[in-house]
Amino acid sequence: MRLKLIFQLFLRSSMLQKKRAILTVAAIAWGTVAILLLLAFGQGLKDQLMKSRRAMGLNIAVIWPGETSRPWKGLPAGRPVRPIADDVEYLRQRMPDLKGVLGEIHSWGTTLTYGRKTVTSHVIGTNWIYGEMRNHIPQPGGRFFNPIDEAEKRRVVFLGNKLATDIFGKEDPVGKTLQLNSSPYLVIGVMKPKLQMGNYAGPEDDHAVIPITTYIAQYGTQQLNNLVIQVHRPEEMPEALKRFKEVLSAKYGFNPEDPKVFGIWDTVKGSEIMGKMMLGIELFLGIIGALTLLIGGIGVANIMYAVVKEKTREIGIQMAMGARRSWITGPFVLQGLIYTLLGGACGLVIAVTIVILLSLIPTGGNQALAFLGKPTLSWPIGISTAAILGLIGLLAGYFPARRAASIDPAETLRYE
Amino acid sequence: MNWPLIRRNGRNGANGNGAIIHMDGITKVYDTGKVKVEALRGIDLSVQKGEFVAIVGPSGSGKSTLMNLIGCLDTPTGGQFDLAGEAVAGLDRDQLADVRNRRVGFIFQNFNLLPQISAFENVEMPMLFGGVSKRERRERACELLERVGLGNRMDHKPTELSGGQMQRVAIARALAMNPDILLADEPTGNLDSASGGDIMTLFKNLWEQGGTLVVVTHDMALANRAGRVVEIRDGLIVRDTANAA
Ligand SMILES: Nc1ncnc2c1ncn2[C@@H]1O[C@H](COP(=O)(O)OP(=O)(O)OP(=O)(O)O)[C@@H](O)[C@H]1O
Ligand SMILES: [Mg+2]
Fold first, then answer.
1. Which of A160, A390, B83, B173 is the most buried (most CB within 10 A)?
2. How wide is the angle at C-alpha B69 spanned by C-alphas B67 and B74, nearest 5°?
3. Do A251 and A289 fall into the same domain?
4. Rounded average pLDDT over B62-67
């Protein structure tokens, strides 16, 4: 009968407060939808950022040579330091802990001709390891160039996916021969499209990559535009960069502490900052959602304050008959939870539906949509939302219950 | 008739003389901020087990205040109050609730039944709070309702009952936990004289079966059917006489 009493109290009061009860459940549902969607979008954004960070290469640093700014062992400041292609092997031998190292030489004005079509394009000569380090994954049917291509200076070219379409249209480029500054090159692969946020030498879907040995033979220069190193774990990066400077300092004669010799883009540092930013965004979204829920919770509490007020006499009677505090407070706490969980359940259903519907919308190659259109609901999101809901439900019941328990039976039952 | 006992109170009259109520210099001051009302100004009252006491007095004299104190619905401002041999002062809210549940049965002028549940459930309610098993609750609620002559009205809501019937439900409810003492504050005040007379007869029967009752009334005819009449004026007992049997 206890449950029956509690349930009757719940039904009667919710009938009485029907409109407010519906509004309140709706508010809680809306708050749940808001918090779930906000967090889901945040998670989606985070996933996409992670992906795009991987797109350029995980745990890499890009290094551009510059000039000395400090005198060193009798040499004046202002000398240029110009590493060459052979320095890649030199570094690899002296830094065995690196996951990888490569050099790049760039040409921005190379003509690529296939049939009647000619485009001026960006061509990079680099080492075979570039494919792995820089995430140039070939589309099915193609490949990136390998150590043998590089050793034998083969005339092979790997095309960015956009460049490939510009030149070949709907034709399959792999196996075709194109003219690179009038020399014939065999197309061996086309890059798989990738979501990418940062780059350091222009868009990667729009360039062509050839073995560095072939490049030197074709263009007659072996001065590197930049080097890229990759470490196994992020925390190894500072030590690796230090060692890198020491190794080249011995060869080229400069102060390894000289900050001007190399321009360095340490993506590990960048991703740390990005991680903090993401955390900030998540916190912000979470707080907004939680506040919305809190407003719903206040609505629930208000309904029950009204119930307490309306039922003061009945509560007084129960107290006079010997109801302990828990008998009085129990129904209110239960009611607070019921309203909140009801709203939360509705909100969950709506949020999941929206997330599923959004995942059905094709992004159509639109980068902005690709970043925003993939909200993801995860267990941590679900659990933290449920925890917040439960807490709000308890509080929404607790405060009215406390007021109910503080009713003075003698005062209430006084006969006027 | 034998009342089935749920709980036997072996400690009735722990102070040796069988006093269920023992009050010594009880005062009650209502402090409403601006004004302080001295509702009771030093009540000395003892009620023994098996007594039927009528409390009379003009309006505002403090009768209800006294009943609320005896029924542990309120606590005195000063003085010593023992209920069935136990000091009430210093009990916390839940302990007071237990005392109300087990030791006293309260009957109000305006019945104070829960309007949305049936007569049966109203009688069941105190036993629910008292942790009585479902079977025992049912049996006892049926017995009590039959005893007050409402065996055929058990499933009626209070609104479907007459005033006299409602008061009889309230009496059954007050008896549910087999209390040490029955308290009634103007139980016939809202009833016509016929139903009022029925209620008084019911009280008298309970008394004859060994029950202890304290009843507030304005009606001297009813008061004279009790064993003892206590008159209150301005928060003090001015008369305390036994009626001739
Ligand atoms: N909660 C309260 N706050 C302030 N004053 C109160 C309160 N309850 C009672 N009083 C005052 O205490 C005095 C005694 O009131 P009480 O209700 O005990 O009188 P009573 O004898 O029961 O009167 P009646 O016969 O009209 O029921 C009155 O002056 C009343 O105004
Ligand atoms: Mg009164």
1. B173
2. 120
3. no
4. 96
